[in-house]
Design brief:
By secondary structure, the protein is mainly alpha-helical. The protein is built from seven helices and three strands.
């Protein structure tokens, strides 16, 4: 289960408690558990050898936990690169607007292509600061025909 899916399930459970008087207790329980897990992770991360930690950062669950507890060792640019490197298609960054959270990308290779949803899914666990993706089309291929187009034949 991803960090995003877990967050949704927790929110659903808290919503179910709404109005029952147990809502505050449920929220306090989540805060206490988060603090406990965060403290434990804060002690573990420095003890993990850097090459091992680098491999672990590719795991969406590990990356999500470290981000959730503000323990991820990579900056935003590195995390965006990690997410984009995992895509089946090559894309390049055109720009990122931190105010809106919009990441602009351009396809760099032809192929069937992945859409914005696939890119957003790859970014969700590594760079939740990215809240929107604009995917530009790459250069179009020149089509070479065996004969001139019909409009040219009519002249």
């Amino acid at each position: 289960m991803t960090a995003e899916q877990t967050g949704l399930r927790i929110q659903e459970a808290l919503d179910a408690l709404a109005g029952s008087g147990a809502e505050e207790a449920g929220e306090q329980l989540v805060r206490d558990l988060m603090a406990f897990y965060g403290e434990g992770l804060a002690r573990l991360v420095p003890a993990v050898p850097p090459p091992t930690l680098a491999r672990l950062l590719d795991d969406p669950a590990v990356a999500g936990l470290l981000l959730l507890h503000d323990l991820h060792p990579e900056d935003l640019d590195a995390r965006i690169s990690r997410a984009l490197d995992a895509l089946p298609e090559q894309v390049e960054r055109v720009g990122f607007d931190p105010a809106s959270g919009t990441l602009r990308l351009r396809r760099t290779a032809s192929g069937c292509g992945c859409g914005e949803q696939e890119v957003e899914a790859a970014l969700a666990c590594h760079a939740p600061e990215v809240t929107a993706v604009e995917l530009e089309r790459g250069p179009q291929l020149l089509q070479i025909a065996t004969r001139p187009p019909l409009a040219a034949e009519a002249r």
